[in-house]
Design goal:
Layout: H1 2-33, E1 36-40, E2 48-49, E3 52-56, E4 61-67, E5 72-76, E6 81-86, E7 91-96, E8 102-107, E9 120-126
Parallel strand pairs: 1-4, 3-9
Antiparallel strand pairs: 1-2, 4-7, 5-6, 8-9
The structure holds copper (II) ion.
């Protein structure tokens, strides 16, 4: 009887452990999914896609940046973010927590094309 109780206890422990493990794995996948993919192309093509980003004050914003054509760079001066060069096909991930609301302009800061000067977008941070 005592052996059966121990066996049942171990089985229950294994089942609960497996369920908790799967739940943890799934929630960590979800966390990695949270980022916004931001792609760069010279402005005669599409420029930044998306051109407008939305975030909430106090909540981490994760951006995965990549380029579809030539080397670009991402500069968001109000939050002190400068990725440096982003080569075509490579990914750079940045994460930061906006500490104020407003609309902020981000730029390409690598001379990428004759239309480089118009390659910008907006980050809108809401309450
Ligand atoms: Cu540029």
């Amino acid at each position: 009887m005592r052996t059966e109780l121990i066996a049942a206890g171990l089985l229950l422990f294994a089942i609960v452990g497996t369920i908790l493990g799967m739940w943890h794995l799934e929630s960590s996948y979800r966390k990695h999914d949270r980022g916004v993919l931001l792609t760069a192309e010279v402005p005669t093509e599409r420029g930044w896609q998306p051109r407008i980003l939305h975030a909430r004050i106090g909540q981490a914003l994760r951006l995965r940046l990549t380029s579809k054509d030539v080397t670009h760079g991402f500069l968001l001066p109000e939050f002190g973010i400068n990725t440096g060069p982003i080569s075509p096909g490579e990914f750079t991930t940045i994460e930061f927590v906006p500490d104020r609301t407003g609309t902020f302009t981000f730029y390409c800061n690598v001379l990428c094309s004759p239309r480089h000067g118009s390659m910008n977008g907006r980050l809108v941070v809401d309450e």
